[in-house]
């Protein structure tokens, strides 16, 4: 199926995508927050997103959670569009898509974060008066050795839920 009819099909499933996207985002968030609470990772994607908008840490978590939920819905529509272009959806396809999504995040977005996030330190910058967050590095390993595994698992669950509800 070509891109535009697939997009129309994805939009036609708006209720399923919104509810499935919210549930998938909640499950992904629980997985990421649990990995923090258990000491496996220090990565908090909602906090990073919120800290992009505001320099106040207390508000960053609130703004970040709102942005993260909106992002979860946007990605749910992208998944629905992708599945519609393939002409199928399912649990295993969702897991694979989630793993690719997580892998892209870890290998492309996280290493580039210091170059577009105003409050993440660059690995090449010297000290400045303003406090900054540690750069995540490749696979976000600066946030913990288990960060890649917990991130990939959480994204696999996100994709699995979307693949299942859109099948």
TrEMBL record:
It comes from Citreimonas salinaria. The chain crosses the membrane at residues 16-40, 60-84, 91-113, 146-166. This is Uncharacterized protein. The keyword Transmembrane helix applies. It comes from the Bacteria. Keywords: Membrane, Transmembrane, Transmembrane helix.
């Amino acid at each position: 199926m070509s891109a535009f009819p697939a997009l129309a099909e994805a939009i036609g499933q708006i209720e399923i995508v919104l509810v499935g996207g919210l549930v998938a985002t909640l499950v992904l968030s629980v997985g990421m927050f649990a990995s923090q609470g258990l000491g496996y990772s220090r990565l908090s994607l909602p906090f990073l997103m919120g800290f992009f908008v505001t320099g106040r840490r207390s508000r960053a978590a609130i703004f970040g959670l709102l942005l993260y939920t909106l992002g979860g819905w946007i990605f749910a529509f992208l998944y629905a569009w992708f599945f519609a272009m393939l002409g199928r959806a399912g649990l295993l396809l969702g897991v694979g898509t989630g793993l690719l999504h997580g892998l892209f995040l870890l290998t492309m977005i996280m290493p580039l974060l210091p170059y577009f996030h105003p409050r993440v330190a660059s690995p090449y910058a010297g000290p400045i008066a303003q406090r900054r967050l540690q750069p995540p590095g490749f696979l976000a390993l600066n946030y913990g050795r288990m960060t890649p595994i917990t991130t990939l698992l959480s994204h696999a669950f996100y994709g699995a839920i979307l693949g299942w509800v859109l099948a």
